[in-house]
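Please, structure for the following, as tokens.
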Amino acid sequence: MRHFRFTILILAASFAGSPAFAQAPEPPVAAPIQTATPLEETDPLEPLFHALKRERNPEKARGIASQIMAEWDDSGSATANLLMQWATTAIGEKRNAAALDFLDQVTVLKPDYAEAWNRRAGLHYAMGDQRKSMADINQVLIRDPRHFGALSGMAGILTEAGQDELALKAWERYLALYPADRDAQEAATKLSEKLAGSRT
């Protein structure tokens, strides 16, 4: 889960059964695989995701994942990038209200910029609002279903909420994108074993 922006934050005590997750949204269904379009062929992330999916060495895969995250950080707008920098500084200084304001502005300025929603999801989680955090994660995945960071965050939150089957689905989607992540492999294996044990 280290790739998810708010996995750098310490997960709070388990909130399994919390009303905020009584109706936690199911991870969005991935779109069917289609043949490449001219737009996809020019997507600078396509080669990186292809390499990440094929790489089996964890260290090399981590380097590829870091390149992808660096691409995610750039909104393509100088104003949005500046607001994101201010938000990061405010989060580091525990000025959550100011950080939230900056991130809100980015989602209005660049609504298709997935990383702004991802960063805000982390902030909502840190502020104790799991429902808003999950809602923002879903917004990330609507904009970029390949966002393995958001998928790991979703899996972690669902696990904490006791929704193991949904959490496992999220981890499976994550591993389809980033199969060499040993932490994700371990998390998925533990959930699989737990679910198998509960059915016996």
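The chain has two domains: 57-144, 145-200. Confidence is low (pLDDT under 50) at residues 1-40.
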